[in-house]
TrEMBL record, chains A, B:
Zn(2+) binds at residues 55, 85, 88. It comes from the Bacteria. It holds the Pfam family dCMP_cyt_deam_1. This is tRNA-specific adenosine deaminase. Keywords: Hydrolase, Metal-binding, tRNA processing, Zinc. One of its GO terms (molecular function) is tRNA-specific adenosine-34 deaminase activity. The keyword Phosphoprotein does not apply. InterPro entries: CMP_dCMP_dom (IPR002125), Cytidine_deaminase-like (IPR016193), tRNA_aden_deaminase (IPR028883). The keyword Metal-binding applies. Homodimer. Belongs to the cytidine and deoxycytidylate deaminase family. Catalyzes the deamination of adenosine to inosine at the wobble position 34 of tRNA(Arg2). Binds 1 zinc ion per subunit.
């Protein structure tokens, strides 16, 4: 049995998103995987830190670079529960991320709505893994917010 | 005599860029101005922090939000010595920046090369203020690097 599957990593990202949910943050979680090992975990903390840049992806990139002592994350793959925004896509470009796997799409704020590819040419992308779970968490958050 | 002119603020950003230069960082500096007062100063620290997200603009936004206790910087204007990249444009979108003034253009990595406007619709932009000084500093840095 292979433990460290993409599903395993995305589920770890989803756990981070659930922590965000519990703390009243928009529930987006991320983990950075390097050579089949999780080297960073993060969730959206824009409210807690009063900082629009504190997206899960930015925090995961910063934390992964700190862990590896390297600016470039060419051998790392980011698992994130929501399609990255333009800011996070730009950050992943600079980090030269090896790969991005995202669960739910974000037609309104995702980087994919841009005509140009904002990612680094070396960054491989996959989407849709555990999309239902990620989306349900986001929907539950916004339903709660509107009450 | 008006002390707090756009030239004054851009010169403060340029001082930050010079500090970056002295520390071996790509010399980009920024200040955040709110109601005619500098509330944050920052320079590029990607090398020192081993973090691709540590651009002057990101650090200035984070610092300004910390100073004001507010995520949104609608009454703030960012003075930065180089045209922001996609990541920083995306961050300024989330912060709903009132304005961005940049000195030198960045045809290769600036946000302006994208067909879409990546900035918030409320963000006013001016460019070219003290461009020569900002560009000279960058050119001097890359000349030194190539030696």
């Amino acid at each position: 049995m292979e433990l460290y599957t993409p599903e395993y990593f995305m589920n770890e990202a989803l756990k981070q998103a659930k922590t965000a949910f519990e703390e009243g943050e928009i529930p987006v979680g991320a983990v950075m995987v390097c050579r089949n090992r999780v080297i960073a975990r993060a969730y959206n903390q824009t409210e807690k830190l009063t900082d629009v840049t504190a997206h899960a992806e930015i925090l995961a990139i910063t934390s992964a670079s700190d862990s590896l002592g390297a600016k470039y994350l060419t051998e790392c793959e980011l698992y994130v529960t929501l399609e990255p925004c333009v800011m996070c896509a730009g950050a992943s470009f600079w980090a030269q991320l090896g790969g991005i796997h995202f669960a739910a799409s974000d037609p309104k704020r995702g980087y994919g709505r841009m005509n140009e590819n904002l990612l680094h040419p070396k960054t491989k992308v996959s989407r849709g893994l555990m999309e239902t779970e990620a989306k349900e968490l986001l929907d539950a958050f916004f339903r709660k917010l509107r009450k």
